[in-house]
C-alpha cells in the first residue's frame, strides 16, 4: 500500500526530508506540551538515523500523515526489533499534531503498524512510551496492547516513568 486517503488526511510512506521533520516536530512539540529537553530530540534523531541506515522495506515502514495541502499532521514507524530473538517489531515515534487530534489519525497510524506487522510475519509488536502520554496510552490499549513493565528513569533529562507495552499478533 502506497497511501491511504480520507477527507482529513493522507497516509503515505516516508520520502527524503521526512526524517528531519519528524525530529523537528517531536523536539518542538514535546518541549511545548511536556517541557521535555533536547535530550528527547536527540533520542528521536537516533531512531531516525537507525531507520535510514537499516531500512528493510519488506519488514519496516514509516508512515507520514499529510493534510490536503501537504502539511505534516503526524507519523509513526514500525521497525524490526533487532535486539530480540522472538520475531518482534517495534512501534516508534507516534506523533499527531494538535490540529489533527480527534480525527482518528492516531488510531489509524497505530492500526497501520498492526496490519503491516501481521503481513510481514511478526509475532508481536513492542513499544516504549512515557506515563504522561495518556492519550497515546489509551490508543495503544484500544488496539490491544498490554502494559508489560515500567521503569523510573532520567533518559529525558528528568525523572519519569517509562512504560513497555506489547501486542501479541
Automatic annotation (TrEMBL):
Alphabetized Pfam families for the sequence: Acetyltransf_1
InterPro entries: Acyl_CoA_acyltransferase, GNAT_dom, NAT_camello-type
Gene3D superfamilies per record: 3.40.630.30
Entry GO MF terms: N-acetyltransferase activity
SUPFAM superfamilies according to UniProt: Acyl-CoA N-acyltransferases (Nat)
Domain N-acetyltransferase as annotated: residue spans: 9-169
Keyword annotations from UniProtKB, A to Z: Transferase
Stored PROSITE patterns: GNAT
Keyword Transferase: yes
Designated name of the protein: GNAT family N-acetyltransferase
Amino acid at each position: 500500500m502506497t497511501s491511504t486517503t480520507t477527507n482529513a488526511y493522507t497516509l503515505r510512506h516516508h520520502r527524503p526530508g521526512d526524517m528531519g521533520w519528524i525530529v523537528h516536530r517531536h523536539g518542538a512539540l514535546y518541549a511545548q506540551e511536556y517541557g521535555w529537553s533536547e535530550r528527547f530530540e536527540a533520542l528521536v534523531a537516533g531512531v531516525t538515523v537507525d531507520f535510514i541506515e537499516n531500512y528493510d522495506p519488506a519488514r519496516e515502514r514509516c508512515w507520514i500523515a499529510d493534510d490536503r495541502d501537504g502539511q505534516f499532521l503526524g507519523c509513526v514507524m514500525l521497525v524490526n526489533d533487532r535486539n530480540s530473538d522472538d520475531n518482534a517489531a517495534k512501534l516508534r515515534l507516534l506523533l499527531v499534531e494538535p490540529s489533527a487530534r480527534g480525527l482518528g489519525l492516531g488510531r489509524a497510524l497505530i492500526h497501520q503498524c498492526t496490519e503491516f506487522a501481521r503481513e510481514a510475519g511478526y509475532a508481536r509488536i513492542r513499544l516504549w512510551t512515557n506515563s504522561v502520554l495518556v492519550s497515546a496510552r489509551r490508543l495503544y490499549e484500544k488496539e490491544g496492547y498490554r502494559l508489560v513493565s515500567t521503569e523510573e528513569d532520567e533518559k529525558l533529562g528528568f525523572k519519569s516513568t517509562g512504560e513497555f507495552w506489547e501486542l501479541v499478533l
